[in-house]
Write a structure and sequence with these properties.
By secondary structure, the chain is mostly helical. Helices cover 84% and strands 0% of the residues. Helix 1 (3-69) packs parallel to helix 3 (121-141).
Amino acid sequence: MSETENQQEARDNQKTQDTEAPKDLRVPAALARTAFSSEQSLMSWIRTALSLFTLGFSITQFFQYLDEKQEIIKLSSGPRRLGIALVSVGIAALLLALLDHVYHIKKMKEEGLPPEASSFLPVGSALALLVIGIAALVSILLNWTL
């Protein structure tokens, strides 16, 4: 082989190595997009759980207020049960969404998810809201008023 053929072969090898490099970046990029999608789903569940907490707590507080104002007529316990059910469903949904998100992020980290692609902010927000939801449920169950 002549020297020009060797140089040409070296250039061809370099070109194939250059074209193969982006393939190596595809998996971490796909994992990062999936992680961001998982965080977006968790944030949607946080929004839904917050709505359930708010509605359930508001219903129970409103009917408890009405019950205190009308001492003669006793209201049914249906609204209170509905409020408890809504807050409980919100807690369960948020807990399941949080566990699902953590599970998926853990699996993606095992597959090579870059550390920059996962954030603690959605998980921290979900945990804080979970504590607030449990506090709201305890408040409803113990008939605390604001």
